[in-house]
From TrEMBL, chain A:
SMART domains assigned: CoA_trans
Source organism phylogeny: Bacteria, Pseudomonadati, Pseudomonadota, Alphaproteobacteria, Rhodobacterales
Family assignment from sequence similarity: Belongs to the 3-oxoacid CoA-transferase subunit B family.
Coiled coil location: none
Pfam family, one: CoA_trans
Name of protein: 3-oxoacid CoA-transferase subunit B
From TrEMBL, chain B:
Transmembrane segments: none
Organism encoding this protein: Sedimentitalea xiamensis
Family annotation (InterPro entries): 3-oxoacid_CoA-transf_A, CoA_trans_fam_I, NagB/RpiA_transferase-like
GO molecular function: transferase activity
Protein name in the entry: CoA transferase subunit A
Tree of life domain: Bacteria
UniProt KW keywords: Transferase
């Protein structure tokens, strides 16, 4: 089974040299630690391309934050712009890929990650725009919830963030692609058998 | 043409009324018009509708107007990190219209550009699309979103000249230009007003045509998530 960092490292393999990429909050943020020598430009949808690492205490700048409202730094390649232009490049398909967290995904590529009715009302932020606009959507999430129930479903039960938008799912148990008729197993995580992966998945798995 | 005022309350004089619609710049607590929000609180103007990406935190940003119950409705994309907001929303005291972040930014930009509506793929097949016109273009389905025109826009910039040309700093730009554009009137607060001619005309982020009134002030610039790495 993969831990958070191993999932992030696996997700980093999705990125190719020269890509402009948006990373969501949580495990996706860790993906930046594993891009290695690849030339990747990170977008922060509040209005920045070329996001750098977290600042040292001396570098902290209240005018420089990422989409998770964390303080960050700039790089030599950095550019700033307003939120309308930022989502123009997202909606316009200029961002090659987004790596996002999820509460639920379904076998048809539906994604739910923005609210739990009656319990948690935070909002979708930029997630709906991202999944509708970017070239490729990779979801990184735990395969099951804390009760052991599958989060990789036949149909989402929570309000959707996007319909038929997910291309690839990376979980602590393995990697699955959304294909015609269901999900196809790409690989199993270290120490996980295909039977274990299938047993933890409610969604239909096709060969 | 006199745009520079002495204080936030002076700059808002005659512009505020109960039930009005205000568009505000800022993302989280970054680049928010903190001085103008404080002045709106002190004015006691109520039943306000705000188009703003977030609602601040409990004691900063739009949060201070929620504490005094001056806000009737929020149009936002993300309202986490604000306990009083959540309480008022769940108890039905506050109306909330969730807009995807990019849709909200584009609604402001479009409204300011004289575009009453636009089609977007964002939100198709979700709650956001319910009740909206759907239309297919080139085999893909889009929904109609309306442009926003607000009674008042309030924004924060880094520098201005006395004609209202604005320069923003880093990610504090965020929603400020589109918010400014969609206001029938726009009031900007800045850290420094410089004489005309001292800003490079090629480096102006928002032309002064969008800015009607202007103040200079001291900003707290509170940080929401202080995240550091080891040096």
């Amino acid at each position: 089974m993969w831990d958070r960092n191993q999932m992030a490292a696996r997700a980093a393999q999705e990125l190719e040299d020269g890509m402009y990429v948006n990373l969501g909050i949580g495990i996706p943020t860790l993906v930046a630690n594993y891009v290695g020598d690849k030339d990747i430009t990170l977008q922060s949808e509040n209005g920045m391309l070329g996001m750098g690492p977290f600042p040292t205490e001396a570098e902290i700048d209240p005018d420089l934050i990422n989409a998770g409202k964390q303080t960050i730094t700039e790089l030599a390649r950095t550019s700033y712009f307003d939120s309308a232009m930022s989502f123009g490049m997202i909606r316009g398909g200029k961002i090659a890929a987004a790596i996002l967290g999820a509460m639920e995904v379904a076998e048809n590529g539906d994604l739910a990650n923005w609210m739990i009715p009656g319990k948690l009302v935070k909002g979708m932020g930029g997630a709906m725009d991202l999944v509708a606009g970017v070239g490729r959507v990779v979801v990184v999430m735990d395969h099951t919830n804390k009760h052991g129930d599958s989060k990789v479903l036949k149909e989402c039960t929570l309000p959707l963030t996007g319909k038929g938008v997910v291309n690839r799912i990376i979980t602590n148990l393995g990697v699955l692609d959304v294909v015609e008729g269901g999900l196809r197993i790409v690989e199993c995580a270290d120490g996980v058998t295909e039977d274990q992966l299938r047993a933890a998945t409610e969604a239909n798995i096709v060969d | 043409m006199k745009k520079v005022y002495g204080s936030a309350s002076d700059a808002l004089d005659g512009l505020l009324f109960d039930g009005m619609f205000i568009a505000s710049g800022g993302f989280g607590l970054c680049g928010i018009p903190e001085l103008l929000l404080q002045a709106i609180k002190e004015s006691g103007t109520k039943d306000l509708t705000f188009a703003s990406n977030n609602a601040g935190v409990d004691d900063f940003g739009i949060g201070i107007l929620l504490q005094t119950r001056q806000v009737r409705k929020m149009i936002s994309s993300y309202v986490g990190e604000n306990a009083e907001f959540m309480r008022q929303y769940l108890s039905g005291e506050l109306e909330l219209e969730f807009n995807p972040q990019g849709t909200l930014a584009e609604r402001m930009r479009a409204g300011g550009c004289g575009i009453p509506g636009f089609y977007t793929k964002t939100g198709v097949g979700t709650q956001v699309a319910e009740g909206k016109e759907h239309k297919d273009f080139d085999g893909e389905t889009y929904i109609l979103e309306r442009g926003i025109v607000a009674d008042l826009a309030i924004v924060k910039a880094w520098k201005a000249d006395d004609t209202g040309n604005l320069v923003f700093r880093k990610t504090a730009r965020n929603f400020n230009p589109p918010a400014a554009m969609c206001g029938r009137v726009c009031v900007a607060e800045v850290e420094e007003i410089v004489p005309r001619g001292s800003l490079d005309p090629d480096m102006i982020h928002l032309p002064g045509i969008y800015v009607h009134r202007l103040i200079q002030g001291d900003h707290e610039k509170r940080i929401e998530q202080r995240t550091i790495r080891e040096a």
